[in-house]
Specification:
10 strands, five-stranded mixed β-sheet, alpha/beta, globular, 5 helices
């Protein structure tokens, strides 16, 4: 891989169960990595883990121009911020309030929308450029509604009451305080379409 200056991006997605890393260059993902989330690890420990993973693929921190972090684990946000600043000699971009993403968050309390949901919305809108729903299979399964104009209309977790093939056992439930009007309503017209794709959803899971 070329040295810094070629637009290489290190993306870091810190979730409750896993931490995903990806190296993006020339419009494509060249490397992907996944490790378990351990809240007690230090910046040095995470730095060693990531440096080793990159080295196995022939990538060094010096090859990365920019690092972008999305985190739903607040204690680890500062850990990765410190680690990446040490390794790259410049702070990463941390997705959060105040960061301009090109997505307009049309919920009652935009600051309560997780950075993972925002990052998914940015990627989906860039890819589709039309009305769509993002289905995120993480620790929880989350649906996010996005308009053709790039408005994040709302997000809701899927609550699976019982495993099985019955579509009726899967529902969308509002769980984000302050989002009662706008979290569930934009999703209602799409739920039937989503359920018709049930075999595909099971395959993805």
């Amino acid at each position: 891989m070329n040295r810094a200056g070629d637009g290489s991006i290190l993306a870091v997605d810190i979730g409750n169960s896993n931490i995903k890393f990806g190296v993006h260059r020339n419009g494509a993902w060249e490397r992907r990595y996944r490790i378990s989330t351990v809240r007690t690890k230090t910046p040095d420990e995470y730095g060693l883990s990531l440096r080793s993973l990159l080295a196995e693929s022939g990538v060094a921190f010096a090859d990365i121009e920019t690092a972008v972090v999305s985190s739903v684990v607040p204690p680890l946000t500062s850990v990765f911020n410190e680690m990446l600043e040490q390794q790259m000699e410049r702070p990463p971009l941390v997705v959060g309030p105040g960061v301009r993403t090109g997505i307009r968050i049309r919920t009652d309390n935009p600051v309560e929308v997780g950075s993972d949901i925002v990052a998914n919305a940015v990627a989906a809108h860039a890819h589709c450029r039309e009305r769509c729903i993002v289905i995120a299979f993480g620790t929880a399964i989350t649906l996010t509604a996005i308009s053709a104009d790039g408005d994040l209309l709302g997000a809701a977790p899927l609550v699976v009451a019982e495993c099985g093939s019955s579509v009726g056992k899967t529902t969308a439930r509002r769980q984000v305080p302050g989002h009662r009007r706008r979290v569930s309503r934009p999703l209602r017209g799409h739920i039937r379409i989503l359920c018709e794709c049930e075999p595909f959803i099971h395959w993805l899971a």
